[in-house]
Amino acid sequence: MAVPALVLAVFYAWPFGALLARVVDADSVVDVVRDPDTREVVWYSTWQAALSTALTLAVAIGPAVVLGRYRFRGRTLLLGLLTATFVLPTVVMAAAVDALAPDGVGGTAAVVVAHVLFNIAVVVRIVGASVAASADGPDHAAATLGAGPWRRFVDVTLPSVRGAVAAAGAIVFVFCFTSFGVVRVLGDGRATVEVEIWRRATVAGDVDAAAVLAVVQLVVVGLVLALTARRGATGVPADAGRGARRVQRAGERRAVVAAASFVAVATLVPIAAMVARSLRGSDGWSTTAWRTLGRQEVRPGISLGVDPWDALLTSLRTAAWATAFAVAVGGLAIAAITVARRLGRALDAVLLLPLATSAVTVGLGMLIAFDEPPADWRASWWLLPVGQAMVAIPFVVRAAADVARRSDPDRLAAAAVLGASPLRAWATVALPVLWRPLLAGTGLAAAVALGEFGATSVLSRTGTVTAPVAIERLLARPGALAQSQGYALATLLAALTVAIVVLVEWIGRARRT
Q1: pTM for this one?
Q2: Number of domains in the chain
């Protein structure tokens, strides 16, 4: 337990404490609160997040109910498409929506559309799990009494999943309120609190104001989550039912077709538009953007100032180090959770804290804390991978923590009686059960680190441009070639992210067979 606890203390608690210390200055707090720009940013973050949440719930509850209640051919593929969309870097989803939008259409409308498309998977997973875990007897009874599909949906299904809808809505609101990559690419000058924190810390150089805004954001997010928990909103009801069943009636078939069509369009069309835009130049269809990705000068004497290929390689190197660090720390934490049950539960809860804190806030805390000796680490190459790992560690732990807690303690005790040390007992008894969820956590950590944009934007040093940062810069530049290169790089990043997830799943299936 010592290693993960020490890592959390040094790279989360210390930076977070340094961040709070900046907010103690009353003058800084008063200046930020009185600033009209601050009130405008907080208001914009709130209303666009509320609108994005309402629209996401409106369009996703129907597919969530269908995918949660019915089994049909292609259901696994649809759930996989939604999962792939959700694990894509936010800057890639922003690029896809930007490619899909007509010329001249952007700003808040594009931001909301990107938020909706990105968060459909959240609602489908949470509400769909609740529907699958609920008995469908009341729905059958309502159908027997003559209620049509819409009446059953409104009067029977929605009340039974009210808690799951509230939980999904709270998570979507938090994601949209703290949105960073989507707003950076599509915001057209508008800023959420997260973007304003980054701007004041890195562009304006006003770290004190950025720290105050980070605390304001934490307070708002904490209030939303606390209110949701107080109202008893949960993802899955305690009494699990029969799960998904096969389609039986004509109305159910129509609902399945409609839900499947919506999910396919919402996930595939934006990505297809992004690929198409990468092949479109100023003179029509062209592969110039792809052929010039690795060149410093795209034409004699003309340079875009960003090397997309070098940025992609930098992302791969950084993500590899971040994943190794996250898996090492997360693996030790899971071992502690398996062996030391009571203290392990406490460690599990504490390791979730970075997940509850925005990535920009994590990076800003590190920027403040590691600014002077003996911990003057801001220029160190390893600080960026560590910052990305702090965002990824919770995914590794959550992927295997539940399995670790459910493992049989008697088998570990038997190994100890036979003379095995705690580490030997864990390696020979628990690890064979935990390797699959650990592998899944490794894939999630790699995907998160590869597309991480928030902490990276704060911690990046000069000359260490990653792929998400390069995409944002290329899309912001005028000229068809620069933007086509941005779409091409976004396509490559999306393909790599999906490939990582698919590879991990394929290895898991191969080992099972």
Answers
A1: 0.83
A2: 2
